[in-house]
Specification:
The protein is α+β, with helices and mostly antiparallel strands. The chain folds into two domains: 196 residues, no CATH class; 148 residues, 3-Layer(bba) Sandwich (FAD/NAD(P)-binding domain), CATH 3.50.50. The chain is built from eleven helices and twelve strands. The strands form four sheets. A five-stranded antiparallel beta sheet has the order 8-9-10-7-11. Strands 3-4-5 form a three-stranded antiparallel beta sheet, with no helix packed on it. The N and C termini lie far apart (47 Å). Its main location: mitochondrion.
């Protein structure tokens, strides 16, 4: 249990709770849930520019990272087709993957197919079910994809000023504006209480909030004097109590509660808001193809990691379909902006390609 580990090393509750956020981020779990310690390790095991455990902002927004990868691939001869939805994987008479069919009827032939989609989409929607072992299909259907995340993107006409560290007179960003700001994280018990509410189908009344202001480091993201604020919040259940839908009223009610929390730390924040975009778990699933809205394509729990991700005997990126590989977050080692799953899958696919 992460809570026990933190208690052994630290005395400060705000410090323990701040560290605990990386153990539950994107997970329908509490700091006291068995296995939560691994999720913390997963988020600090990497490095950025030689600094271990560090994270950073991508200049131009996260889309700029995708564009950089696309340019690098195109420079090596890759052809990239955007806005071309895949209908299904094409299979030969021998059951080997032979390419993909697009929804517009176009067929793209290939000796190998690598899927960055979730295991659920790859194997339950894009692959003919009769070609897959029944126990494999059952395993994919049983993957825990519960998500606690609601993402709120906010446009503000001035920099938030926090009671703990008021803004300078010139209104320029201070060091804390250029980091992740954690709110409602005064204690691990507070995080656990927020989790407990969600397990009963209720959005947390005091949700965990990770607030970032990327425009404080990348001014080109917003007009002069204005800023964009990214709110990563939890816990919000994918399905509300009583089967109530995440309609506009529910979305706005939750966002209003989040803004009320921020207002308590930074008076004037609500008055500075000039626009907001609310993405609940069903929205994340619909827009980005994330099963259950899970940002990792499946929970990062101990029973869904290492040799069991996405299924036992299929953690090596190969699938029951020869020539079809899984290279996204649903494969080992899981989610995060690191590219490990894709790199590993590419090496396996290249190894097989040389044998064809």
């Amino acid at each position: 249990l992460l809570g026990q580990i933190l208690d052994q090393w630290f005395e400060s509750e705000p410090l323990k709770a701040t560290l605990a956020t990386d153990a539950v981020i994107g997970a329908m779990a509490s700091p006291y849930t068995p296995g939560s310690g691994y999720v913390l390790l997963h988020h600090v095991m990497g490095e950025l520019e030689g600094q271990r455990g560090a994270w950073g902002y991508v200049a131009g927004g996260m889309g700029a990272l995708s564009q950089a990868i696309a340019r690098a691939a195109a420079a090596r001869g890759a052809h990239i087709f955007a806005e071309k939805a895949v209908c299904h994987v094409l299979l030969g008479r021998d059951g080997q993957a032979q390419g993909v069919a697009l929804q517009d009827g176009t067929e793209v032939r290939s000796k190998l197919v690598l899927s960055n989609a979730s295991p659920q989409i790859t194997f339950l929607k894009l692959t003919p079910q009769e070609q897959l072992p029944k126990d494999f299909v059952q395993r994919i259907q049983q993957v825990d994809t519960r998500s606690p995340v609601t993402k709120i993107n906010v446009a503000v006409d001035r920099l938030p000023s926090f009671l703990a560290a008021p803004n300078a007179r010139d209104g320029r960003p201070l060091p804390h504006h250029q980091c992740s700001i954690h709110l409602n994280c005064e204690s691990t018990d507070l995080l656990h209480q927020a989790f407990t509410e969600a397990t009963h189908g209720q959005p947390s009344s005091r949700p965990m909030i990770e607030l970032c202001i990327p425009s404080a480091l990348d001014p080109g993201l917003a007009p002069q004097g204005c800023h964009v604020v990214s709110l990563f919040t939890q816990y919000t259940p994918s399905v509300l109590a009583g089967g109530q839908p995440w309609d506009e009223q529910a979305r706005n009610a939750y966002a209003d509660g989040v803004f009320d929390c921020i207002e308590a730390y930074a008076p004037g924040f609500k008055a500075s808001v000039i626009g907001r975009d609310i993405l609940t778990p069903p929205d994340l699933e619909r827009i980005f193809g994330l099963p259950g809205g899970n940002i990792f394509h499946g929970g990062m729990s101990l029973d869904q990691l290492y040799f069991a991700r996405p299924a036992p005997s299929y953690s090596g990126y190969r699938s029951p379909i020869p020539g079809l590989y899984l290279c996204g977050s649903g494969a080992h080692p899981g989610g995060g902006v690191m590219g490990a799953a894709g790199r590993n899958a590419a090496r396996v696919a290249l190894e097989d390609f040389r044998c064809l």
